[in-house]
Design goal:
Layout lengths: L5 E10 L3 H10 L8 E2 L6 E7 L4 E7 L7 H9 L3 E9 L2 H10 L5 E11 L5 E10 L10 E7 L17 E10 L3 H12 L4 E2 L5 E4 L6 E5 L1 H7 L12 E9 L2 H8 L4 E3 L2 E4 L8 E6 L1
Parallel strand pairs: 1-4, 5-8, 9-12, 13-16
Antiparallel strand pairs: 1-5, 2-3, 3-4, 6-7, 7-8, 9-13, 10-11, 11-12, 14-15, 15-16
Length: 285
């Protein structure tokens, strides 16, 4: 039975070495990037968000080393930049944490935190969250997962931040590189109680629920066949590899990506070297 209090992918976390440089990089790719946010001293991190509907991307960076961000720092040291974790939307984080505990996965949290947000009119408000994590060791294809309950959606989904020159509308898929796609997909399936499905090329998809983006586990060879002509340099054998984004206008996408754009079959792509370790593939709705 699927989890009742955890629905679909909420956002993808791209870990970056230099927050401000990463934000400028994504602006060059045609994304509207939020003002910079700063988390608590305990968390020691900061972020920029790239808002879609109903999901988003988060560029996350370390401001000061803390015990809390040790796994993120280890990720940067070992892998470099790229998809470090995926968040689900939590309807109720406390209830969701108990659901996974009942399935044998002791949750980390839930914990409450907030960060200041500068609104378009210049006033400062707060974005408030309650989150819990699956155990750190439970990381399918080396990608950690957690669930996020938004207590102030109005300070996160700000209309002025949701229109992008590259016509990005929402996440469609999170592609996870794995030398053993079926094994890693089965791992995620156990964690979120969703059934995997093998695709025509041997990749294995796991729906995230709620009509949100799917996870797709595939080998680097399979990834290369899906996106011929796109350099996969920087993507590890096991780890978060790519975000497939729905575009409202592929011509606008190609124009906004400029020199970074690579046509690959029906997709317009930005290779990992141009997007902080993450392959971005834009496809028609």
């Amino acid at each position: 039975m699927a989890l009742k209090n955890v629905i679909g992918i909420d956002h993808a976390v791209v870990m970056v070495k230099d927050l401000d440089e990463a934000a400028e990089n994504f602006r060059r790719l045609g994304f509207t990037v939020s003002p910079r946010g700063t988390h608590s001293a305990h968390m020691g991190s900061g972020n920029y968000t790239i808002m879609f509907d109903p999901d988003y991307m988060e560029l996350l960076g370390i401001i000061a080393p803390t015990e809390h961000n040790a796994p993120a720092r280890a990720f940067l040291e070992k892998r470099g930049e790229g998809i470090e974790r995926i968040a689900f939307t939590a309807v109720d984080s406390a209830a969701g944490a108990e659901e996974i505990r009942a399935r044998g996965f002791p949750p980390v949290g839930p914990v409450d935190f907030e960060r200041p947000v500068t609104l378009p009119n210049g006033t400062v408000s707060a974005a408030k969250f309650r989150v819990f994590q699956w155990p750190v060791a439970e990381a399918p294809a080396s990608v950690r997962i957690f669930a996020c309950q938004h207590k102030t959606r109005e300070t996160v989904w700000i209309p002025e931040l949701m229109t992008h020159a590259n016509a990005a509308k929402r996440l469609k898929q999170v592609l996870m590189a794995s030398p053993e796609p079926a094994k890693d997909a089965a791992h995620l399936s156990r964690l979120i109680d969703r059934e995997p499905k093998t695709e025509a090329d041997g990749a294995v998809a796991v729906p995230s629920g709620g009509g949100r983006a799917d996870f797709v586990f595939l080998t680097l060879e399979q990834l290369g066949k899906r996106y011929p002509g796109v350099s996969l340099a920087g993507i590890p054998e096991r780890g978060g590899a790519a975000l497939v984004l729905v575009s409202g206008d592929l011509a606008a996408t190609e124009k906004a990506l400029g020199a970074a754009a690579v046509r690959s079959g029906p997709a317009i792509c930005a290779p990992p070297a141009k997007a902080n370790g993450t392959l971005l593939a834009f496809v028609a709705a």
